[in-house]
Design brief:
The complex is a heterodimer.
Chain A: H1 15-21, H2 44-50, H3 52-55, H4 60-93, H5 99-129
Helix pairs in contact in A: 2-4, 4-5
Chain B: H1 11-23, H2 25-31, E1 66-67, E2 71-73, E3 78-80, H3 81-99, H4 104-110
Antiparallel strand pairs in B: 1-2, 2-3
The chains are: A mainly alpha, B mainly alpha.
Chain lengths: 140, 114
């Protein structure tokens, strides 16, 4: 008996169309090799704030940079976990929608932005502590 | 955390290249020579069936960075999920040391408390 299959949505697009008009190599994205990172972590920013009494000896600049480096490190890791979760959702619904693909991409974009900003704060911290032998962790 | 310098191909270097492609996406779109060609040409083929593209797919991509099975990619570099995750975990470890005011890499160099 013949079976009528009605294709609609993204599964009706040929791979070339997906790759050209949505995102490069999208048609090959079927099984992402995501590194597991536990989402539950200690809240380092809270720890830092609770250590406020001990940080009073820091200069304002050093305290500000430490505070924001910790923020950026937490955010970057959170965004990675959210991106990985969204990417798994995309794989489960890839024939229907690209909503989760772009949600994952957004989270990874934010992850990279927080990582970049975190490195800048880390450079500042190193420079503030040891200005004589300061070498940036990263500069561009 | 490993030291990294611009252009050395390290994880941080590639992460920054990816970030630049996101941050300056509009400028990157304008860099390619075929920026003013019609999108129609993406589907054009020669009479023998071969593709008529004189440029690469990523030159005309809608996004500056895209996702692969292995990781993230832009026109210039690729960064695997594993590399990114390991860097983030190292970052988190550094944050923990700073939050506890015992960052070894810093205190060893300075020999004085924060």
């Amino acid at each position: 008996m013949a079976k009528l299959v009605i294709r609609f949505g993204l599964d009706s697009m040929v791979p070339e169309a997906k790759d050209n008009f949505i995102a490069p190599k999208l048609s090959q994205l079927t099984a992402p090799k995501l590194e597991f990172v536990p989402a539950e972590r200690r809240q380092y920013l809270t720890v830092f704030i609770l250590n406020t009494d001990l940080t009073l000896r820091m200069s304002n600049l050093l305290r500000q940079c430490c505070f924001n480096f910790i923020r950026k490190a937490e955010y970057a890791l959170d965004e990675y976990c959210s991106g990985a979760s969204a990417l798994r959702q995309y794989i489960a619904t890839m024939d229907v929608s690209v909503q989760w693909y772009f949600a994952a991409l957004r989270h990874f974009e934010h992850c990279l932005a927080h990582l970049y900003e975190g490195v800048r704060y880390l450079n500042r911290i190193h420079k503030a502590i040891n200005p004589d032998s300061y070498e940036p962790q990263f500069s561009r | 955390m490993n030291r990294s310098l611009a252009g050395d191909g390290s994880v941080l270097d590639r992460a920054t290249v990816l970030h630049n492609h996101i941050k300056h996406m509009d400028g990157k779109f304008g860099e390619v020579s075929v920026r003013d060609e019609q999108s129609f040409k993406l589907f054009a083929v020669r009479s023998d069936g071969s593709e008529n593209l004189s440029y690469k797919q990523h030159d005309v991509a809608n996004v500056g960075v895209w996702l692969l099975n292995e990781g993230l990619e832009c026109r210039e570099v690729r960064l695997t999920y594993t590399e990114l995750a390991q860097e983030l975990v190292a970052f988190s470890d550094e944050a923990e040391r700073i939050a506890n005011l015992t960052p070894p890499s810093i205190s060893v160099r300075s020999q004085t408390p924060l």
